[in-house]
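Predict the holo structure. Ligand: zinc ion.
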Amino acid sequence: MKLNLPTDLYHSVCPCRIRESKDDQKSYSKCCQIWHDGLGVNHFPAHALNLMRSRYSAFAIGSQILEQRPLMKHYLENTWHASTRPQDLMLDDTVWTGLRIIQHNSSVLKAMVEFVAYYKINGRTERLQEKSQFEKINGQWQYVVGTYIETQS
Ligand SMILES: [Zn+2]
């Protein structure tokens, strides 16, 4: 993945879709940008899975495109449950290279998404597997907490 400029970004495959099958490779403008830009106009993902995707994309974009970092940080903070939200979220320069959804389920007010996120360190691809919990507060899904899952590589 190479995302250098915001102008490239909008027509690129959404960061959350890069590892999907060809049919599901929506562009950023048709995928997570809808949620990132919807911030402030009361337009939030109706499903926790979409929130999960949009948060992954916010990390991926915020870490690679400095101009986008404040917006992505704002988005992540706004979709983070008040009880677990970091005081001052720091986005580092991690290169996130893809997302794979393992499983997800949802009831009316609680949801779980298990995923693997891929990232690069020193040219090597690493994976982070996590089960994230979400809660719906005032009609809006929020990320509450994640549990890492150890897997054999
Ligand atoms: Zn997306």
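The pocket of zinc ion is lined by residues 14, 16-17, 31-32, 53, 57 (CB under 6 Å). The beta strands are 95-106, 110-121, 124-137, 140-148.
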